[in-house]
Amino acid sequence: MWAFTIHAPLDARFEQAPTPKPAPQEALVRVHSAAICGTDLEIYQGNMVYFTSGAAHYPVIPGHEWSGEVVQVGSDVHSLHIGDRVVGECTIPCGQCVYCRRGWYNLCANRRETGILNMNGGFAEFVVMPSPFLHHIGELPYDEASMVETTAIAVYAVHQAQVTPGDRVAVLGTGPVGLQAVQAAKAYGARQVVAIGGRPSRRKLAEQYGADVALAADILDFTEQIRRLTDGQCFDAVIEATGNPAVTRKFPLLARPHGRIVMTGLFGGKIGELDLDWLVTSNVILQGSLGSPNVWDETINLMACGKIRSSDLITHRYPLAQAKQALQFMASRPPDLIKMLLTP
Q1: Do residues 203 and 180 lie in contact, with contact meaning Cβ atoms separated by under 8 Å?
Q2: Residue 193: inside a domain, yes or no?
Q3: Is the distance from CB of 326 to CB of 317 less than 8 angstroms?
């Protein structure tokens, strides 16, 4: 098969690779669409933490956001059939540790991560996956289905934030996860969702996706605007989706007493600033949100019924043979880029 393999930092090649063979509990999937994530760029550039720490190793075929068609199933697979349209999870756990047994398989110390951690991914013609971590997508278009992984991160964050009808929700960040979090919060009945981001085009898209208001993060009267929008009450839930440690300074301006703050961004080792006295005296709940365990079928259903849309996030497409050029284009930070797809 043809695959895009990263052999070392900045050493990536579109080349022939062995087509994987499914084990008894696995399925072989022909990839139809694969989305590029910032993590893929970090792997290519050599600064992704798993690789710098020695937890993961080159060479690797990246790609943890993809969709495709089952072409072969292992002898013990009964839930899938040839021709099924599927997506695959990123986290592949051991299934035996205390975290797996409690359903927290995103925290499994022995996990693999598709296209990232000791497992090849979807930047190839074919990918092999354990069948329990493949999910049927029904009639959802392949391009949109390649956005399920990103969307599931947002849905899981909304779960973690315990968003319920009547809540006021602030979403920090208008990248793919933030834009999907806006829609997920609305799908769970939030009475008000305020998106806070940088680029005007993305703030406009956040409003098209259901945000009641989209604010610039750097406006001078930020505090006054938040008070006006929330009748002086601030937000029941705050979802951080920026990866920018500077946003932690805004938490006391956003979360009400006994509010919930959920953080999805990774900060590359950088440290934010947080008023710990405020955290204690306001009885605020601060929580991390890693990955997307146990929400994939729910996410697919939300996308299939139109509660969460993704097609407008797809701004660029490249053939798989030009994956290196696509990553280099992403590295230039073009202002109109939101999500880029590769087609094998």
Answers
A1: no
A2: yes
A3: no
Q: Does residue 205 sit in the same domain as residue 333?
A: no
d(CA 162, CA 331): 35
Tell whether the torsion through CA atoms of 132, 109, 172 and 252 is positive or negative: positive
Q: Over the Cα atoms of the chain, what is R_g?
A: 20
pLDDT at 174 (0 to 100): 96
d(CA 90, CA 295): 12
What does pLDDT average to in each consecutive run of 10 residues of the chain (344 residues)? Answer: 98 98 98 97 95 95 98 97 98 97 96 96 98 97 98 98 97 97 98 95 96 93 94 96 94 97 89 93 97 97 97 96 98 94 94
| Range(s) of the domain holding residue 245 | 157-288
- We report the CATH number of the domain holding residue 80 as 3.90.180.10
One domain, residues 141 and 166:
no
Cis peptide before 59 (omega within 30 of 0): yes
Query: Residue 217 is part of a domain; what is its CATH number?
Result: 3.40.50.720
